Structures are given as structure tokens and as C-alpha cells.
Amino acid sequence: MKRFPLASAVLLAGLVLPAVADAHTFGAHDAGFAHGFLHPIGGWDHLLAMVAVGLWAAQRGGAALWALPAAFVTAMIGGGLLGMTGIELPAVELGIAGSVIALGALIAAQSRLSLPVSLVVVSAFALFHGHAHGAEMPEAAQPLLYGLGFALATALLHGAGVGAALSLRGVVRGGTGALALRGLGAAIGLSGVALVALA
């Protein structure tokens, strides 16, 4: 039961932070680290996908627990550089929405793809997310600070997903906990479908 407050805090942060991010617009003087940090948190598509990576990593356990989040952040930085320099990627928004649907489905199915294939999957999705971050960087932002901001926010969202999954296991013992995590994945996937439908 000691882990339950962490799960509550993660859920509360997921509900509140996007609204906080939308409520703040940054001018030229502060469009660096803070703007980059809030960019992944300010959109449900980014937030859901990044939390889903953490959930999937915790569901799989072992080396995937750190390798999947690390691969996502690394590839996302690469995508961010592409976006910052104006190099186009095809169907970025579709790739972002698809990542929410696919990652949710992988959790719901309790997928056991090989680790190398899983790393390719999360890295490919991360390129789209990173490209969107980079392409939407304010002109006045310092690229390094902006990039550090969105990389840190992403890592924290992965950590929130890992923490939520571990807390869920602590609260709901046995097979029911695993089933609840799969249900959470299904909810994320359906949220991705809703985001596409409402776009």
C-alpha cells in the first residue's frame, strides 16, 4: 500500500500538467529550457505515448526497464535535431498518433517482442515526437536549453509510467495487477483513436 500515493501523484500530474502547460505562453526571454520542458507535457498525444513507454518497459521488466526509455529519449533527440534544422519527416502527426495507439495495444496485448525489435519500435515513434518538438521550437529559444527541457520532461514521463506500473502491481496483487495494467494499455490505445478522430 505504500506505493499507492505514487500512483495517485502520477495520475494527478497527468491530469493537471497539460492544463498548466496550456495556461502559460512564453515570450522571447524565457523560451528556452522551460518551453522545451512543457512541450511534451502540453499535448495529450506526447504525454500518453511517453507514459506508455514507461508502462511497457515496466511490464516487460529486465533490461527493457531502462533500455526502452533510453532508446526513446535518444531517438527523440535525433528527431528534435531534424525538426530544428528544417529537415522534413513524412506524416509526423500520423506517426505521433499511431505511437499512442500502437504502444497502448502492445501493453494491452502484453507483447513480448524481442528487445531489439522493441527498441526499433520505440525509436521509430520517438523520431516523430522529437521532430514535432524541434519543428515547433520558438525562434528565440536556445536550442540546447530547449532540447534539454524536452528530453528531461520525456524521461520524467517515462519514469511516471514505470512508477505507475510498479505501484499498480503493489496495490493489486497477482494476476489482477497484470490484467489492470493491460486494461490501462487498452485505455491508452483507445485514447489514441479518439485523438485521431477529434483531430
From TrEMBL:
InterPro entries: HupE_UreJ. The keyword Transmembrane helix applies. The keyword Signal applies. Pfam families: HupE_UreJ (PF04955). Keywords: Membrane, Signal, Transmembrane, Transmembrane helix. The chain crosses the membrane at residues 37-57, 64-83, 89-108, 115-132, 144-167, 179-198. Residues 1-21 form the signal peptide. This is Urease accessory protein. It comes from Azospirillum palustre.
